[in-house]
Amino acid sequence: MVVFPVFVSAILASFVLAEPLLSPHVVHEKRARDPLGWSRTRRIDPDVILPMRFGLTQNNMDTIEDMLMDVSHPESPNYGKHWTAAKVVNHFAPSPATISAVKDWLHSEGIHSSRQRLSPSKIWVEVNASVAEVERLLKTEYHIWADNEGGERVGCHEYSIPEHMRDHIDIIKPTVHLTGRIANPSQLRKRQIKDSNHRLGSVNSGNGPKTNGQKPSTTLTLADCDQFITPVCLQALYNIHYRPLSTKRNTFGIVEFTPQAFLQPDLDMFFKNFSPSQVGQKPILVSIDGGVAQTTNTGFDFNGESDLDLEYAMALTNPQPITLLQTGDLVEGAGFDNWLDAVDASFCTFEGGDDPTQDGIYPDPLPGGFTGPESCGIIKPPHVVSISYGQDEVTITPKSAMRQCAEYAKIGMMGTTVLYSSGDNGVAGFGNVCLTSNGTEAVPPAGTRFNPTFPSGCPFVTSVGATQISPNKTVHDPESACEQVIFSGGGFSNIFGIPSYQKKAVAGFLKNHPPPYTAAQFNNSGTSRAFPDLSANGANYVVAIDGGFFLVFGTSASAPTTGSIITLINDARLTIGKGPVGFINPAIYSDLFRFAFNDITTGGNQGCGTPGFTATTGWDPVTGVGTPNFEKLLALWLLLP
């Protein structure tokens, strides 16, 4: 037997005890490609300080879908028993072992515990560290990436962590996440209706059918709805006959990102024609991170989205007050995480805040920026939130997308319905960009693979597609998928797996109506999240914008219309002492709700040089389960607890 000296044995023992800290580094995240329009320019000075955030692995994430289904599925005995924010935080908080492991690793790498800050819910460890320290820690190099418009982002191409830390660290920022500012799905596809007296006249675009010159006033009748959608058209289409009674208890939020802002004269112009009793009414503005309804820059690109959302949401739910979640200052703007911070203290206070490579970071040090603290939990989550913005899924890393997606599940567990527009380019991404065989974005014919959108691909939001009243048809005829100016966004995620609530519907579509495409063009595995979930009209909306009337097309219109319908249903439930419906997807895909939707069986969503998918019987990746029948949905949801 070999006998080691005592001091040698002690050294060997110390190595054994410290072994986890000696485990080899493995790649934790890697950017498969640079976002379209971004390129690496130069290394960063090693002395530059980076605000590093180490996202800790949360507990019970494997049960998050089950927990959400438990309070959302109509057959669950716990339907409608929504959680409090505190219960959400406690259920998903990281374990003490994870917290200790990350802090010990950082300390062993020279980042003393005095430099580490643990967020209140213990989800993030925050450290201000030099580029040199971070590059050594993560075995990477930091560069500046620049876009075509002069914007810059800080990041690396990939980073590594010790193998034994993989179970404790979910994500680290800033690293590979170069996502640019989010975009408006429809880019507000428009035709201006020009006349000094605000008459509906000739359009200024050669796309699509022409208008017929009728006045945008209350003299428009249901016979005109194939050319001019107004609130009465939507009420007739979706059988909406209800006046709210519990407006003080109900809430409906519309998210807008500065500098997009509404103009009060536009609202009044619209109301004068289509809802006279509302002239002078305005939304309840909640300023998030310096958000302001600016009036300095005006025009369709600055006022179109907000005017559209508010005019229709306010008219359809009158007299329900609408909450405007105006997000981001004029200097820095904002991203999705910013509005989530404002409505969910468990996301910012408890989970550490935003992504400095994507979101507005406040206080804003830039000249003229918002100097106050970030808006964290400043308002209770509205019962319904409509967001007409999105991004190509390929422009966000899977880990970042999954972490944000989990937050939608959490506020769904707290009783909020989150609606996102599905996009307006059919199976293509924004700007009709598709994917190449190696996953980069390119316009056809270079790009041929379908390009799904985010957050529509998140299984914990409700994605809304677009339909139309076809020319020479009426509100009493079946609608078709929108094929005027825009095409309803839809398809299959390349990141998210299929949720349990839509497995049956998607399997039925792929079996009974198999698309004529291979795996080279879309994720045809049958195991990925599919969207949209439902749809509503998205063509020929008459909207007052910047002192004139426009025809607006897109899922940007479909989302607030759907949100209005859910808001009215919530009002009826609140009136009889029940709670809001919350996350609606498990219900709308259930057999119980099948006949409460108008099945859309014609039209498609072309893109990427193909006809795209085709609307057909049952769920399809063009119009989802169909368009809502308000009275049927109301009757069903009133029966639920």
UniProtKB/TrEMBL annotation:
Q: Which reaction does it catalyse?
A: Release of an N-terminal tripeptide from a polypeptide
- Any Gene Ontology CC annotation: extracellular region
Q: Which GO terms describe its molecular function?
A: metal ion binding; serine-type endopeptidase activity; tripeptidyl-peptidase activity
Signal sequence residues: 1-18
* SMART domains tied to this protein: Pro-kuma_activ
Q: Which PANTHER family match?
A: PROTEASE S8 TRIPEPTIDYL PEPTIDASE I CLN2, SERINE PROTEASE AORO, PUTATIVE (AFU_ORTHOLOGUE AFUA_6G10250)-RELATED
What role does this protein play?
Secreted tripeptidyl-peptidase which degrades proteins at acidic pHs and is involved in virulence.
Q: Could you tell me the EC number(s) of this protein?
A: 3.4.14.10
| Main subcellular location of this protein, as a coarse class | secreted
Can you tell me which residues bind Ca(2+)? D599, I600, G618, D620
Location of this chain's protein in the cell: Secreted, Extracellular space
PROSITE patterns hit by this protein: SEDOLISIN (PS51695)
The UniProt entry, under CDD domains, shows: Peptidases_S53, Pro-peptidase_S53
Domain Peptidase S53, chain residue ranges per copy: 228-640
**Note accompanying the cofactor annotation:** Binds 1 Ca(2+) ion per subunit.
Task: From the Swiss-Prot or TrEMBL record, give the protein name.
Answer: tripeptidyl-peptidase II
